[in-house]
């Protein structure tokens, strides 16, 4: 299948490109490389372009003629979205509309959309399922709700179908250490903890210890990035075979607290790095755990890496390799 992947040079996008490429799909990655890297694209070709550039999008669609689009090109940091909401609405909403316009002009009607558990805000119950109200508590989550609304309305109005995958906390790396998280200023807990263990940061901050959880720190559902990539492939196959629009959660159905993650990170690395407890961050819900029953039932998805120690080990192996490469290139 011919598939255009926006943001395919980024962390999640590159792992999905890897999985699609291993299955023999014909891939075109469309990425501005603002947070992604050309070396992370293991399959397919790269077009360096902006989603705001309709001319560049038209050329990519006209030349490649994709059958489906997977859309990963979004700004994703919760705290940053609170500080810079306009940037998030411009990229996550306005630029996504440009992509949808291009798809319409070129007759491409199949989309896999990257959404997020942040659309739920602070859910009334756990685990969260797809029927729960959408009450985002930060601009990042709000931007994704806006786009889910747009997609729903477009699908209702014409010949367009999509699957929105609501990610919970994605972590880990390619087990062969070919690709992994490579952000210049990582904010994800696991990556931040490992960079602290590796000496890149003097300490790891725990943002808030007074949440209504067992140890007072936030609880999250961590899913290995390769399991998430498999979910995308299965969702795409489901969409192409059935033509049905769906929304599905992607997670394991159980969570770990910040303190539990830190403990396992110290075990994996063998380093007792410095941890500091500090104030809460804006926009952080106390707990987010996925009910992924729908994804499993409709697509047959079964996680292969539901083991936090394995997730952190793959991330650590990647972190050591990537940091050594950066030092060697200086």
Automatic annotation (TrEMBL):
<dbReference type="GO" id="GO:0033499">
    <property type="term" value="P:galactose catabolic process via UDP-galactose, Leloir pathway"/>
</dbReference>
<keyword id="KW-0520">NAD</keyword>
<comment type="pathway">
    <text>Carbohydrate metabolism; galactose metabolism.</text>
</comment>
<dbReference type="InterPro" id="IPR005886">
    <property type="entry name" value="UDP_G4E"/>
</dbReference>
<dbReference type="InterPro" id="IPR036291">
    <property type="entry name" value="NAD(P)-bd_dom_sf"/>
</dbReference>
<dbReference type="InterPro" id="IPR001509">
    <property type="entry name" value="Epimerase_deHydtase"/>
</dbReference>
<dbReference type="GO" id="GO:0003978">
    <property type="term" value="F:UDP-glucose 4-epimerase activity"/>
</dbReference>
<keyword id="KW-0119">Carbohydrate metabolism</keyword>
<feature type="domain" description="NAD-dependent epimerase/dehydratase">
    <location>
        <begin position="3"/>
        <end position="251"/>
    </location>
</feature>
<comment type="subunit">
    <text>Homodimer.</text>
</comment>
<dbReference type="Pfam" id="PF01370">
    <property type="entry name" value="Epimerase"/>
</dbReference>
<keyword id="KW-0413">Isomerase</keyword>
<comment type="similarity">
    <text>Belongs to the NAD(P)-dependent epimerase/dehydratase family.</text>
</comment>
<protein>
    <recommendedName>
        <fullName>UDP-glucose 4-epimerase</fullName>
        <ecNumber>5.1.3.2</ecNumber>
    </recommendedName>
</protein>
């Amino acid at each position: 299948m011919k598939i255009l992947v926006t943001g395919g040079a980024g962390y999640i996008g590159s792992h999905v490109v890897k999985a699609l490429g291993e299955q023999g799909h014909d891939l075109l990655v469309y990425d501005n490389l603002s947070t992604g890297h050309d070396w992370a694209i293991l399959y397919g070709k790269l077009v360096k372009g902006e989603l705001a550039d309709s001319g560049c999008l038209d050329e990519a669609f006209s030349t490649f003629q994709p059958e489906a689009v997977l859309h990963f090109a979004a700004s994703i940091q919760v705290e940053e979205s609170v500080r810079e909401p306009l940037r998030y609405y411009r990229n996550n909403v306005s630029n996504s509309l440009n992509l949808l316009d291009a798809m319409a002009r070129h007759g491409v009607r199949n989309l896999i959309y990257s959404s997020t558990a942040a659309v739920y805000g602070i859910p009334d119950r756990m685990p969260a399922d797809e029927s729960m109200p959408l009450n985002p508590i930060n601009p990042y989550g709000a931007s994704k709700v806006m786009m889910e609304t747009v997609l729903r309305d477009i699908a209702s109005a014409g010949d367009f179908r999509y699957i929105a995958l609501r990610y919970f906390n994605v972590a880990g790396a390619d087990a062969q250490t070919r690709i992994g998280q490579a952000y210049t200023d990582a904010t994800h807990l696991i990556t931040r903890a490992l960079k602290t263990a590796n000496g890149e940061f003097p300490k790891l901050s725990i943002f808030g210890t007074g949440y209504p959880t067992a140890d007072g720190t936030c609880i999250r559902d961590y899913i290995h990035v390769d399991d998430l990539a498999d979910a995308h492939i299965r969702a795409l196959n489901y969409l192409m075979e059935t033509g049905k629009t769906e929304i599905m959660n992607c997670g394991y159905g159980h969570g770990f607290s910040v303190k539990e993650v830190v403990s396992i990170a110290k075990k994996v690395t063998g380093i007792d790095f410095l941890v500091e407890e500090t104030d809460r961050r804006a926009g952080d819900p106390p707990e987010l755990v996925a009910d992924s029953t729908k994804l499993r039932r409709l697509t047959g998805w079964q996680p292969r890496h539901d083991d936090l120690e394995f997730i952190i080990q793959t991330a650590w192996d990647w972190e050591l390799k990537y940091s050594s490469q950066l030092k060697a290139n200086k």
